């Protein structure tokens, strides 16, 4: 089960486990607009986090501290899901199925084996599906926010990348965040400053950073020990970059004042910025889409027939021109431009990854219809410049 905890660090700890018939009636511990969080949900989420922390070999904070942190996360997740629903974000069953298949494959499991392992650990599979759906919704909501950021000009990015701020190192970071309310009074700011100073002193006295993050941080990543992941120096807000520049692995920054409060950063590892080389694919694509005139079963039979004709020697490109309902590639004989394996979702990625150049896929289905792919070529593409510009755009927007 520890392998699954590592992959699903944000999902699995918050999934409800099976309940015994003898449990008392639930009490409500929080109202989240029109939704509620029950005591049993909080207890189950805490148990999941405890398993996660123990799997990392770290010490647990007091139960009261853990309760407060987990409840805050549950509330924030409910609010994000509600916001996603209000803005029209929807996640189909096929999206959830794709995500579950990815989870199983990443853990070298079949979907049936994944279900068995979850249920053996007391986790109801349907509840697990619901949490996966919620995670996808929240991810799409966050992406929508990113896409709505103020437009940054290419000239601004060029100037930034030419400056010393761009840097060339990457840092594996953890953080502890002590928030200050918007329009805070001087007294509230002083109280937050005293709190972050107290936490900083405990770190100086030898308290493990991850334990301090779990106990005191008010950031959503607190229950993961404040793990931020790898960040390029150039992609950090300037106060953060200045605070950690020159720090070695294991060292911590002094408290940093931000618009949202105070932050302490820990540098866990440092590495030089490396080239970003990605594998890209070129393929021919043929799709048969169900419609008012073509049922899903008929679409499947047509794609099977077309595959047989291609396997027997007919020209893929000509058949794509005649029959494919993919309007973006049909007139090109199904030829797709170069793309990374994840460009068209996990189902496409799994199929592409299973093919050798020149090999024809079996028919496969997505929400768009039934598909055939023939892998034409594979190349290694340097995307370092694109990644650098994307990170610069993010930093300038911040």
What does this 3D model show about the protein?
With 398 residues, the protein is α+β, with helices and mostly antiparallel strands. It folds into 3 domains: 2-147, Triger factor/SurA peptide-binding fold (Orthogonal Bundle); 165-274 and 388-397, Roll (Chitinase A, domain 3); 277-382, Chitinase A, domain 3 (Roll). Helix content is 46%, strand content 18%. The protein is built from 14 helices and 9 strands. It has helices at residues 2-7, 39-55, 63-86, 93-106, 111-120, 125-147, 154-162, 186-204, 209-216, 238-244, 296-311, 316-323, 346-353, 384-397; strands spanning 28-32, 35-38, 169-179, 227-232, 256-258, 261-272, 277-288, 364-366, 369-382. A 4-stranded antiparallel β-sheet has the order 4-3-6-5, with helices on both faces.
Enter the CATH topology name of the largest domain: Triger factor/SurA peptide-binding fold
Number of strands: 9
- State the helix count: 14
User: Number of domains in the coordinates?
Assistant: 3
Task: Name the overall outline.
Answer: globular
Query: Could you list the spans in which at least 5 consecutive residues all have pLDDT below 50?
Result: 1-14, 16-22
Helix content range of the residues, please? 40-55%
Supply the CATH class of the largest domain: Mainly Alpha
Q: CATH architecture of the largest domain, please?
A: Orthogonal Bundle
| Largest sheet descriptor | 4 strands, antiparallel
**Which structural class do you get from the secondary structure elements?**
alpha+beta
Strand order of the largest sheet: 4-3-6-5
Radius of gyration: 25 Å
Termini gap: 38 Å
* CATH homologous superfamily heading of the largest domain: Porin chaperone SurA, peptide-binding domain
Average pLDDT metric:
83
Q: What fraction strand?
A: 15-25%
Along the chain, the helix and strand elements come as: HEEHHHHHHEHHEHEEEHHHEEH
């Amino acid at each position: 089960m520890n392998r699954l905890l590592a992959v699903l660090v944000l999902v699995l700890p918050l999934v409800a486990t099976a309940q015994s018939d003898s449990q008392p009636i639930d009490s409500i511990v929080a109202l989240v607009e029109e939704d509620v969080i029950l005591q049993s949900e909080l207890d189950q989420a805490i148990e999941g986090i405890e398993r996660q922390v123990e799997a990392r070999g770290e010490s647990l904070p007091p139960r009261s501290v853990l309760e407060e942190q987990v409840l805050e996360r549950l509330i924030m997740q409910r609010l994000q899901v509600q916001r996603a629903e209000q803005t029209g974000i929807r996640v189909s069953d096929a999206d959830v199925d794709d995500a579950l298949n990815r989870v199983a494959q990443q853990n070298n499991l079949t979907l049936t084996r994944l279900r068995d392992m979850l249920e053996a650990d007391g986790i109801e599979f349907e509840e697990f599906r619901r949490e996966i759906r919620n995670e996808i919704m929240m991810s799409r909501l966050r992406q929508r926010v990113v896409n709505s950021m103020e437009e940054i000009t290419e000239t601004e990015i060029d100037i930034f990348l030419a400056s010393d701020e761009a840097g060339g190192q990457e840092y594996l970071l953890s953080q502890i965040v002590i928030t200050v309310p918007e329009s805070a009074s001087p007294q509230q700011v002083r109280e937050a400053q005293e709190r972050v100073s107290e936490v900083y002193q405990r770190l100086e006295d030898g308290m493990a950073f991850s334990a301090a993050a779990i106990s005191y941080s008010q950031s959503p990543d607190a229950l993961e020990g404040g793990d931020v992941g790898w960040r390029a120096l150039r992609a950090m807000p300037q106060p953060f970059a200045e605070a950690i520049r020159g720090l070695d692995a294991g060292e911590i920054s002094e408290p940093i004042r931000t618009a949202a409060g105070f932050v302490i950063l820990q540098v866990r590892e440092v590495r030089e910025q490396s080239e970003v080389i990605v594998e890209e694919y070129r393929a021919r694509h043929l799709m048969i889409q169900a419609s008012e005139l073509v049922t899903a079963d008929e679409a499947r039979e047509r794609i099977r027939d077309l595959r047989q004709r291609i396997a027997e020697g007919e020209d893929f490109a000509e058949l794509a021109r005649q029959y494919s309902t993919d309007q973006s590639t049909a007139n090109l004989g199904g030829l797709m431009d170069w793309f990374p394996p994840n460009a068209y979702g996990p189902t496409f990625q799994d199929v592409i990854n299973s093919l050798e150049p020149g090999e024809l896929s079996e028919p496969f289905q997505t929400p768009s219809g039934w598909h055939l792919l023939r892998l034409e070529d594979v190349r290694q593409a340097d995307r370092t410049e694109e990644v650098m510009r994307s990170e610069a755009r993010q930093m300038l927007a911040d």
